[in-house]
Design a protein that fits this description.
Layout: E1 10-14, H1 19-23, H2 26-35, E2 40-45, H3 50-56, E3 61-64, H4 67-75, H5 79-94, E4 100-103, H6 108-116, E5 121-124, E6 140-141, H7 151-162, H8 178-189, E7 199-203, H9 217-229, E8 234-236, H10 242-255, E9 260-261, H11 268-276, E10 278-284, H12 287-294, E11 299-303, E12 319-323, H13 339-342, H14 346-359, E13 376-380, H15 383-386
Parallel strand pairs: 1-2, 1-4, 2-3, 4-5, 5-6, 7-8, 7-10, 8-9, 10-11, 11-12, 12-13
Helix pairs in contact: 2-7, 4-5, 8-11, 9-10, 9-14
């Protein structure tokens, strides 16, 4: 049973980025909304992940940290401009008169921002869950949890500190807006695919700083050819980034007609609309994969260099994962030619996709209320299994 939390009318949430980390904070913020149903919740986030917060509809205000302007001023050696932008932002932050801040990020920057916000009560993580001495800025700390626990469990521990007995929701938390759905319908109508759904949607990209998490273009192409040969509809998603477009176009060429290039997702809302039509989403450990999971779409995660427990998909939606445990993984920096991704065989991916779809009987339709949830299987392929057919 939930105990009475600290009273507050104005609450500051800090989780600046990246997309996947912001997505995985959503269940905790949804629980927080239940704790403070009448409070004004403000989420401080960086521009790259602001759309995620806006689309969630969980907070009253999205406050964007002016990272771009501050970085540009630093690069140009413009101390006056840097000071002006920083002062204007801090004035905006302090005028909200927050009573509580909750730092889900746990860095020096967020710890200082929590302090500078003027919030007298500041929740956060202790070391080593927090880094860069950010714990010194907190007044209340979550208990130390197993460092091997998932991001969802870590965030839940912080909510439990604020309001003991609070549980994270187990329902889908993301859905596309009616405008994004209409926009996608219009773009598909132009190609005669307006009524198409229940496709396997693959997403080959990752952030620019995490290219070591990507699966190879030839590997994706072989998966598409194998699934298409079995009568599966396979689509590939592509964002507005020109490097991602180049990667996607390369895979489409290699797939030799086995892939449908989906309309470009120009916003996070567009991505949700495309995912909502899919019966299965297949990707490496990435923000789009965690978004699909939070939207209730079954996901297949190709896991390589990132931590296998900390980066589990949300347990509220069906998920499976393929990982070949090598001695060098997990790692933080990655390498130019990650063996942990290369040894995942396309045939294993194809087999797992078929198993997931056939296991659900008729592929799940986005028009059905309530997707299957809670089934999470981890396929820890052995080295021998993973080397049956290198991805290329």
């Amino acid at each position: 049973m939930m105990q009475n939390p600290t009273a507050a009318d104005r609450v500051l949430i800090l989780r600046l980025g990246a997309m996947g980390d912001v997505v995985r904070t959503l269940p905790a913020v949804a629980a927080l909304r239940g704790v403070y149903p009448g409070a004004h919740l403000t989420w401080l986030v960086e521009p790259s992940a602001a759309d995620v917060v806006s689309c969630s509809g969980l907070v009253d205000e999205v406050l964007v940290f002016p990272r771009g302007r501050l970085v540009e001023a630093m690069r140009e050696g413009d101390a006056i401009g840097f000071g002006r932008h920083g002062r204007e932002f801090l004035e905006t932050l302090r005028e909200r008169r927050f009573q509580i801040s909750i730092d889900f990020h746990g860095l020096l920057k967020t710890g200082m921002l929590a302090l500078l916000s003027g919030a007298p009560i500041r929740f956060g993580y202790p070391a080593p869950m927090s880094r860069e001495f950010s714990s010194v800025f907190t007044t209340h700390q979550a208990p130390v949890v197993d460092p091997e626990s998932s991001r969802f469990d870590r965030n839940a521990a912080l909510i439990e500190t604020i309001a003991p007995g609070t549980k994270l929701p187990d329902r889908p938390l993301l859905a596309p807006s009616s405008l994004a759905t209409a926009r996608l319908n219009a773009r598909l109508r132009a190609t005669g695919r307006e009524s198409v759904c229940d496709y396997v949607l693959i997403h080959p990209g990752s952030s620019a700083g995490a290219q070591h998490k990507r699966y190879s273009p030839e590997g994706w192409a072989r998966v598409a050819r194998e699934l298409a040969a079995e009568g599966r509809a396979v689509w590939i998603a592509c964002g507005p980034n020109r490097y991602e477009r180049s990667l996607t176009e390369d895979i489409v060429r290699r797939a030799e007609g086995a892939l449908v290039l989906a309309p470009e997702t120009r916003s996070f809302d567009d991505l949700l609309a495309l995912q909502a039509r899919a019966s299965l989403f297949v990707a490496a450990d990435s923000g789009p994969l965690h978004a699909a999971s939070l939207a209730g779409v079954p996901v297949l995660q190709l896991m390589g260099p990132t931590h296998p427990i900390q980066n589990l998909p949300w347990a509220g939606s069906p998920s499976e994962r393929i990982r070949v445990p090598l001695a060098c993984s997990p790692c933080r920096r990655g390498c130019e030619d990650p063996a942990c991704m290369r040894v995942i065989a396309p045939a294993v991916i194809t087999k797992t996709v078929n198993s997931m779809l056939d296991g659900h009987g008729t592929p799940l339709s986005p028009t059905k209320q309530g997707r299957a949830k809670g089934r999470q299987t981890i396929l820890e392929a052995t080295g021998k299994f993973g080397q049956l057919e290198p991805s290329g």
